[in-house]
Q: What sequence folds into this?
């Protein structure tokens, strides 16, 4: 049922959508509280410095981490990344993606980079912000889901999480790869009220394997603006990378690498999935409540739950706004297991659009990840 998309299916495209501006400015809901972003030298932004709150609360220069939307959100008055300057990010503990909301204009003449981590024999390769870990050994699997194809254990898939998510809503990056031990590309939303100029690059590429090449999941880049101009590169190289561009007018003639779609932003930018969108959440494992904001750290001593049993355990799942014909699947991945285990959950009740599901699983002998998805069969 699940098959990784071959690398040769991804093309480098030139995007030149030309049309009259419908609004002149897009409301991107930026209060400018993080000020102007004008780095003069290459910088690594520590997303862990963002305070936790709702995304639309004022920032202090370090952004706001919203666990509900799972994003670190910066609200700038303007952005200017000059030529020769690269902006990278240190992951937030939650591994959340990055959102730039800009009330004025933005210029990217240098590079804005959320690439996944390259092969590293000593540690698991992290995904970029919003992306996922790779496997540890040639017999391992991606610890976290393979993005575009939930069951693609042998090669992570890319930004957008599913082939139907052409708008990259929710914002999500790429899955890690297996034998290459490379991390998935991250995810970034750049929403600019007026003009965005890209003469440099915006990158959400997969990590590179030991022998070279992008084999993990490419990330997700979403751009929302009134006017898009420039001759630069928008790059989600890797398996299944996705680019979404929403602009009232565009004279952008650079390259866009990945699966590219486009549309109009409207007067108010749509930043997050609608409240009525389907969603699923793991509630408990073996009767132990799951934290509301799991860390996705996959490091010794930093697990979200400790379960010291290798017997069948019950996982309880909550679903919201799921259509009647949808199904729920649980995926269990061990650090060094040869394959992931996938179990169909059983619906045990529903009231007021909130459904309860259960699945019985046996955990691998190493630390594991538990992920869940709802889907239309």
A:
């Amino acid at each position: 049922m699940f098959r990784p998309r071959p690398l040769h299916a991804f093309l480098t495209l030139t995007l030149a959508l030309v049309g009259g501006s419908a609004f002149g400015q897009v409301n991107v809901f930026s209060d400018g509280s993080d000020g102007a972003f004008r780095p003069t030298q290459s910088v690594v932004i520590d997303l862990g410095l963002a305070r936790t709150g709702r995304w639309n609360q004022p920032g202090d220069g370090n952004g706001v981490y919203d666990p509900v939307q799972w994003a670190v959100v910066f609200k700038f008055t303007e952005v200017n990344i000059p030529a020769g300057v690269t902006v990278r990010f240190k992951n937030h503990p939650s591994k959340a993606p990055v959102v730039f909301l800009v009330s004025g204009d933005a210029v990217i003449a240098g590079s804005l980079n959320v690439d996944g981590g390259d092969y590293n024999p000593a540690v698991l390769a992290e995904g970029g912000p919003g992306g996922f870990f790779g496997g540890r050994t040639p017999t391992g699997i991606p610890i976290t889901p393979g993005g575009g194809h939930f069951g693609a254990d042998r090669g992570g898939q890319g930004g957008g999480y599913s082939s139907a998510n052409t708008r990259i809503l929710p914002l999500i990056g790429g899955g890690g790869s297996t034998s290459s031990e490379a991390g998935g590309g991250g995810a970034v939303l750049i929403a600019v009220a007026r003009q965005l100029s890209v003469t440099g690059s915006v990158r959400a590429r997969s990590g590179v394997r030991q022998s070279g090449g992008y084999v993990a999941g490419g990330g997700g880049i979403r751009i929302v603006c009134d006017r898009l101009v420039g001759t630069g590169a928008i790059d989600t190289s890797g398996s299944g990378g996705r680019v979404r561009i929403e602009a009232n007018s565009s004279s952008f003639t650079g390259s866009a690498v990945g699966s590219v779609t486009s549309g109009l932003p409207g007067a108010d930018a749509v930043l997050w999935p609608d409240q009525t969108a389907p969603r699923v959440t793991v509630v408990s494992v073996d009767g132990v409540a799951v934290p509301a904001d799991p860390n996705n750290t996959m490091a010794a001593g930093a697990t979200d739950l400790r379960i010291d049993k290798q017997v069948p355990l019950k996982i309880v799942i909550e679903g919201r706004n799921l259509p009647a014909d949808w199904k729920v699947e649980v995926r269990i991945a061990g650090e060094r297991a040869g394959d992931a285990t996938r179990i169909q959950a059983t619906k045990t009740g529903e009231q007021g659009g909130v459904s309860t599901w259960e699945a019985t699983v046996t955990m691998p002998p190493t630390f594991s990840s538990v992920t869940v998805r709802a889907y239309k069969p």
